[in-house]
Amino acid sequence: MKNELINYCLRLGDSSLILGQRLAEWCSKGPMLEEDIALTNISLDFFGQSRMLYSYIAELKGGDETEDTVAFRRNEREFYNILLAERPNGHFGDTIVRSFFVDAFNFHHYSKLKESKDSVIAAFAEKSLKEVVYHLRHSSEWVIRLGDGTEESKLKVQTSLNELWSYTGDMFDMNDGDHLLTSEGIAIDLEEIKPLWNATIESVLKRGKLDLPESKYMQKGSRNAMHSEYLGHLLCEMQYIQRAYPNSQW
Questions:
Q1: pTM for the whole thing?
Q2: Domain count, the chain
Q3: Residues 180-209: tens digit of each pLDDT
């Protein structure tokens, strides 16, 4: 069961790392100073979450494995982050909608995952949940503000919702390893999370006078390390120093 546990932790850790990297790209480019700082701080929260899981993965693997080798010595076919995390930032509305979908998922997921029988995963979920509460409040308020704002902001954020909706199904995808860990009380059945997530999404969109996307088609693939072309480009930039100067120390 160790391999299934490592794979599960990779999905959680990779999703945090890649989304953190995406949000970090907003540093010095935010639409206003307050948001520049907010998005950067949220990205740091995600980096902290990934470090906790990568350290656990290194411990499970043993040998010379470290949190740095887990983060910087794998290619895109060895990453298991959700597809939403690697989507380009686009304009501010795109970023907010992407964060809103993920934040709502993380809130309900971690609320139940903190009861995991694996003490490290439970501690990860409990610590992360304190940050996710703020993340969800931040993204939700912006969705409402943009939706109930000007005609242009409403149009843009509705377009963002429609374009990113097909990637949300990937968050709830499960494989045999997930089902095994769920039966052992380590992981959570994501089908139990989905109605809670749907209720949160619908509630916020209603307040923002926005429409729930109607498309039923969903992108999937992250559980099999299948990704879009965007992940490879992101990793090239993120891993450059470690790849160019292996084992270098400051």
A1: 0.96
A2: 1
A3: 999 999 999 999 999 999 999 999 999 999
